[in-house]
Each structure stands twice: as structure tokens, then as C-alpha cells.
Amino acid sequence: MKHENSKQEKIRLGTHGEDYGSWMSNPVFYMVGALLVLSVVLTALSFSVLHITALGILFSVAGAALLALLVWITWIRKQYAFGGGGMMERVHQVVLSHLDFDGQGSFLEVGCGSGALSIRAALTWPAAEVTGIDYWGAAYGYGQTMCDKNAESEGVAARCWFQHGDANKLDFPDGSFDAVVSNYVYHNVMGA
Predict the structure, then answer these.
(1) CB within 8 A of 113, min separation 6: which ones?
(2) What is the pLDDT averaged over residues 121-145?
(3) What's the pTM value of the predicted model, to 2 decimals?
(4) Which residues are CB-contacts of 8 (< 8 A; sequence separation ≥ 6)?
(5) Which CATH number applies to 90-188: 3.90.1150.10, 3.90.1600.10, 3.30.70.120, 3.40.50.150?
């Protein structure tokens, strides 16, 4: 494990122009921003056109809450970004360092998002064959094409496969993988 930890610390994802996105997706960020703008407009209309003070105060409070949420989301995006605060990179290092896997055989990541953890596994264990699956809903801005491009850019595309999949119903026979991980996913698994 110690050798793998030191090897992982030398791995820096996203240094070749890859797009790993952020744990807090762009659509969520833009939606909160749009709601903030809407609340400001409704506040102004409530006070200046409709002359309904209570409604203006309500929209002002909503706007303040949305502004606080937008500031928090911006900070979170920076902290989790590869090349930013590096939180997600450290989480991935911890996940892999605690995995009982010698790097020989097959590895599955359930909920691979942009492919970052799968790609880190392939870089950590050069003999491993890595598969990443994800449902890739529109709200997250990730997809198989993004994963494939990231794996190609990091030089592991020959050993990394990505496909659409459902965590509730894996399309693999039991015993297909020597190691399975999932990270920041369970809150998105419907019906679990």
C-alpha cells in the first residue's frame, strides 16, 4: 500500500487539458444563478411597480439566501476542482489507498462521472483493466465521450472502458471484477 500511496501522490489529473468537470455541476450552478437574478427582478418589481412591501421583503430574503448558496457553490466548485483546491483528488487517493486490490485484474467504478477515479486507478495500476459506468443524467454535464477523451489524453484509453449503466442493475455477471468502487454516487441512485 505504501508504494501505491506514493505513486498516487505523483499522479496529477487534468494537466493535459482534460475536462473532469466539478462535483458541483455547471447546470446546478447556472440554475441557482438564474434564480438569484429572478429574485432580484421580482424584488425590484414588488417594491417599485406593485408596491407590495411584504412581497418585496420575501423576494429580498429569497435573494439573500440564493446569493449565499451561490457563494457556497462557487467555493465548493473551487475546492473540488482538479487544479483548484484538489479536494476530489485527495478523496480519490484515499479511496484507492484503502482498496484491497493488487492492481492485477479488473476494476469497476460505479458512477464514474467524468472518469477521474477510473483513470486514476488505471494510472496507479498499469496492469489493471478498468471499467467505469454511469447513468450520466443531463444535470451533471458528464458523458461517455468526455470519459473517453479524458482517458485518451491521460494515456490509458487502451485499458479504460466507459459505458452507460445503472447502479441498481449492473449488466455484468457476478464475479466479473476483482475490485469495485463507488464515490459520491449513492445519493443519486434512485430506488436504492
Answers:
(1) 21, 134, 140, 142, 184
(2) 92
(3) 0.81
(4) 93, 96, 97, 120, 124
(5) 3.40.50.150
